[in-house]
Structures are given as structure tokens and as C-alpha cells.
Amino acid sequence: MTFTGGASPAPRRPSPTASRDPDPNKPSPRCSRPQRARPAPRPPGRLPRLRPDLPPRPHRPWWSERLPDLQGLTVHLAGFNSAWLSASDADRGNLVLSRWQCNELLKGAEDADLTIALLHHPWDYLHEHDQASEEEIRRRCGVILNGHLHQQKARLASDPDRDVLQLAAGASYAGSKWANAYQLLELDPMRGEARVHFRLWDGHDWIPDRNRYQKAPDGVATLPLRLSRRAPPPAPEPTPAPSDDTKPAASRSRLSAYRAEVRKAGGRDAVALAPARAVPLAH
Fold it and tell me: pLDDT tens-digit profile of 22-69?
């Protein structure tokens, strides 16, 4: 696509007052200064690339990327556009992702060891008729990253079928009324473990956010992560040995069986008729 300069405004028909003006260089009362054409937009091809090792992609507001060998793992990234219908501060409950984005961006995600979804808005900003998009992303992605609220959080949205780790990012710009914060993630889908490092700007340096969660006193939380399909099966738990508490019950069971056999044969129960013996006390 070729970009050209902006179009010049259409010339105005001179008014009778302007035609009788003895000074042709004097501006008319309707136009205090000449109109200037707006500069042409910057072509997408000239934008700086943050990851020069990734191949270029078409200019569109959603994307997906597959990293086939990231430390021996296959990682699928899906960047969703949750703001394409955003229009005002009343967006909560009115935005839409659409199943089209889910189907387009998550192609082949089932074969990856780890699938990460990125979107700007949290789930409660979606319209009630687009809840299927949330379910589809939760079903096919083990990690979900979102922002917008400028408050970093880590939540486990688990159900009986799957574990989903959802992380909300903090603010990252100067002058914010929210705390500047970010998270560093260590994800191991082979072991099913995620380590989240919470970092906070104290005005001078980035420090561990030790006050984020009580169970993360060092600013590091260890959370479960969805296992890869290639993860080895867990080792079977050893069978516990029978405890001594089961022996009296087994003895009583054998004694009952013996007495039943004696009664059936018409004999006398020697155990029941045995006289009690006095046990002398030791002096």
C-alpha cells in the first residue's frame, strides 16, 4: 500500500467583500490563516520492531505466534483485541471478542506445550452474549494475561477439568495514580508449576512486592500450571502397609468364624467354656 500526502482543502469561492478589497494580500474575515494539509500517517512498515527475530505480520489489531523451540518447548501466543468496540468509559459489559477471533488465533494451540492468551480488558467487560469466547479461551489456554485495571493480581480460575492461571498487570507509566508494577513469570508445563515474581517501583528501584500476598513473603508465588500433553505421567503413590489397628479386627473375624464352625458341628466352644485363670501379682 502506498501512502501519499493529505489532500488539500477545496478552494472557497471569493466573497464580494473580498473581491472589492484593495489589498489582495489581506486575509478575509472568514479565514484568519491559511489552511494546512494534515501529514500523512506513518506507514506500518516503518514502525520500530520490538522483536526483530519474529517474522513481520500484516497490520491488523489481533495476532498469533507459534514459537516451535523455546528451550525445548512449543509455545503458542494469541493476542486478542478486546478494544475493537471500545468507545467510552461505559464499556464494562459491552465489549465483544467473538468466536471468530478465538478460532482464528488458536489454530493449532492443542499441539503446543503451553498456550498463552493476551488481552487488554478483564472478563467482566465482555457482553453477556459473548461468554462463549471466555469459555473457549479458558478451555484452550493455560495462561491468560490482561490489564486495563492497573492492579496486578494472580488468580487460579480452576474447575474440575482444567487449571487456568490468570494474571493482571499493573501500571507501567510515569505519573500514574496506581502503583507501577510488573510480573516476571517462570512457567514449566512439564512439571505443572508456575513461579510468579511480583515487582514494584518504590520511586527509585524495582523491588520485590512483598506485600502483595501473605503466602508470598518474598514477592514470589508458586502456583499450579496446566500440564503439557508430553509431560510424563505422575508416579503411582505407594500402597500403605497395613497398620496394627487392623490386626485385632482380623483376629475377631477369625474367632467368629471358628465359633460358627463349632456350632455347626454340634461341638462345644472351648474358647467360651475355658475358665478364667488367675494371674498372680508379682511381689
Answer: 454 444 444 445 555 555 554 444 445 555 666 665 567 899 999 998
- Cα separation of 262 and 271, whole Å? 10
Rg of the chain in Å (alpha carbons): 37
Q: Residue 145 and residue 8: Cα distance in Å, rounded?
A: 44
DSSP H helices, the chain, are 16-19, 99-105, 131-140, 246-264, 270-273
Report the DSSP pairing between strands 193-201 and 220-224.
Answer: antiparallel
Rounded alpha-carbon distances, angstroms, from residue 64 to 49, 186, 201: 16, 21, 31
107: Cα within 13 Å, side-chain hemisphere: 8
- Helices H, strands E: what count in the chain? 5, 10
- Rounded CA-CA distance 16/128 in Å is 60
Dist CA 224 CA 158 (whole Å): 10
Strands (E), 161-258: 165-168, 181-188, 193-201, 206-208, 220-224
H helix or E strand, kind and range, residue 65: strand 63-70
Q: What's the gap between Cα 60 and its chain centre?
A: 22
Map grid coordinates 494474571 to a residue: 167
Global pTM exceeds 0.90: no
